[in-house]
Amino acid sequence: MARALYIHWPFCAKKCPYCDFNSHVRESVDVDAWETALIADMRAEAKVAGGETLTSIFFGGGTPSLMPPSLVAALLDEAERLWGFGPGIEITLEANPSSVEAANFTDLASAGINRVSLGVQSLEDETLHWLGRLHSSTEALAALDVAQSAFDRVSFDLIYALPGQTSDQWEAQLTRALGFGTSHLSLYQLTIEPGTRFETDVRQGRFQPLGDEEAAQLYDQTRAMTAAAGLPAYEVSNHARAGQESRHNLTYWRYQDYAGIGPGAHGRRGGFATTRHKKPENFLKAVDARSHGIAEQSHLSPRDCAAEAILMGLRLAEGLDLSALEARFDIPRWSMLSKDAVETYSELGFVWQREDRIGVEGKGFAVLNTLIAALVDDELVQA
After folding, report:
1. Torsion sign, CA atoms 268, 261, 94, 4
2. Is the distance from CB of 105 to CB of 66 less than 8 angstroms?
3. What does the pLDDT profile of the chain (383 residues) look like in tens digits?
4. How far apart are CA 383 and CA 368, in angstroms?
5. Cα–Cα distance between 124 and 141 in angstroms, integer?
6. The pairing of beta strand 184-189 with beta strand 153-160
7. Pairing outcome for strands 4-9 and 54-61
8. Which residues are CB-neighbours of 194 under 8 A, at least 6 positions away?
9. What's the Cα-to-Cα distance from 185 to each of 193, 206, 239, 253, rounded to whole Å?
């Protein structure tokens, strides 16, 4: 059952036009009521997703770094009582790199957080303004310094492949980022998501996204630079020193069970997909009525699970163990994957095969979505 726990804190500190939590900004939050509700939701989940000690806990959502440390400590105490903690458990908290949140870091570390993921996004003020971020580069670097003093492990993210960005520009910024000495970096290419302000801007001609060829070149450059610095890519967008990979995210990518609690949280456990009520008030009402916040729970067939496992696992540099997948889902490997496509893309250098393992080569990650669509057997996703 669940070896990882995701705790979603829905509230944002300020309105941001580029996130989907605008409706979750509150003038005040009844912390006692939320502690009661989250613990009730956790207890309900533990009844059906218990049995294994936790190896990771992740606090995500709106602005979890503004959670009162006393609430974080109470939730961690309850999680340990319900599940138990494995040796060296990873307990991560997402944080925006603002001075207000950084002031909370020492107390959050005392409450039990031992890893933080900072949403830096850029080391350049002009880019931060264009992205709609509310922090400056100076503020972000100050928060990074505080985080490295407070927590055992620190990661931060950057966005690249921006409109007009050159190889030299990205090299300079990534060199600077690598110089801060964190053990983990998340490096994401800018994507234009449907329904966002960026999509509207592109449609109306306000800016032109970087071309696919240029973006692929920056991706190759990123992999080469991080590998040379001792933080090779272990996932399509994530880079870490050996042993410093995000254990929580590896749970997702290796398609292991995890429990999700709190408004909007998703979970996967025991062949079921769970979704909690997203709106905070609806979540509280559901917990009050049923002692849990689940809005929807659906059973996943072995083929559903196999398709998800492949989609997630091919993101990893370690690839997939086909024998393990066959045993887990009782489906032959060539009913999950297209043998012809695997052979074709192996010959073209996009896919590797070693005994029972299969994975994506470096250049294949630059076109990962297209590659996965070709590799996954049509009958698996249509069943």
Report:
1. negative
2. no
3. 779 999 999 987 654 444 444 445 555 689 999 999 999 999 999 999 988 999 999 999 888 988 999 999 999 999 999 999 999 999 999 999 988 889 999 999 999 999 999 999 999 999 999 998 889 999 999 999 999 999 999 999 999 999 999 999 999 999 999 999 999 999 999 988 888 888 888 888 888 889 999 999 999 999 999 999 999 999 999 999 999 999 999 999 999 999 999 999 999 999 999 999 999 999 999 999 999 999 999 999 999 999 999 999 999 999 999 999 999 999 999 999 999 999 999 999 999 999 999 999 999 999 999 999 999 987 776 55
4. 23
5. 11
6. parallel
7. parallel
8. none
9. 22, 30, 5, 17
Longest dimension (CA), the chain: 60
Q: What whole-number distance in Å separates Cα of residue 85 and Cα of residue 306?
A: 29
One-letter amino acid identity for 337?
L
- In sign, the C-alpha dihedral spanning 326, 329, 334, 337 is negative
Q: What's the CA gap between 187 and 174, in Å, rounded?
A: 9
Report which of 15, 69, 362 is spatially closest to residue 223, judged by C-alpha positions.
362
Q: Work out the number of other CB atoms within 10 angstroms of the CB of residue 11.
A: 19
Are 8 and 34 contacting, i.e. CB atoms less than 8 angstroms apart?
no
Q: How far apart are alpha carbons 139 and 145 in whole angstroms?
A: 10
| Backbone phi and psi for residue 319, each to the nearest 5 degrees, phi listed first | 70, -155
Strand partners, 228: none
Structure tokens at 277: 């009520």
- Closest to 170 (Cα-Cα) out of 180, 182, 179, 158: 158
CA distance 296 to 273: 8
Q: In sequence order, what DSSP letters do the residues of 116-146 get, joined into one string?
A: EEEEEE-S-HHHHHHHT-SS-HHHHHHHHHH
0.90 surpassed by pTM: yes
The rounded radius of gyration (Å) of the Cα atoms in the chain is 21
Q: Tokens for 110?
A: 């005392």
Residue 40, helix vs strand vs coil: helix
Contact 381, 307 (CB under 8 A): yes
Q: Compute the distance between CA of residue 161 and CA of residue 189 in angstroms, rounded to an integer.
A: 5
The residue with tokens 């996004």 is 121
Q: Which residues contact 377 (CB under 8 A, 6 or more apart)?
A: 334, 335, 336, 337, 338
* The one-letter amino acid at 40: A
For the chain, the residue count is: 383
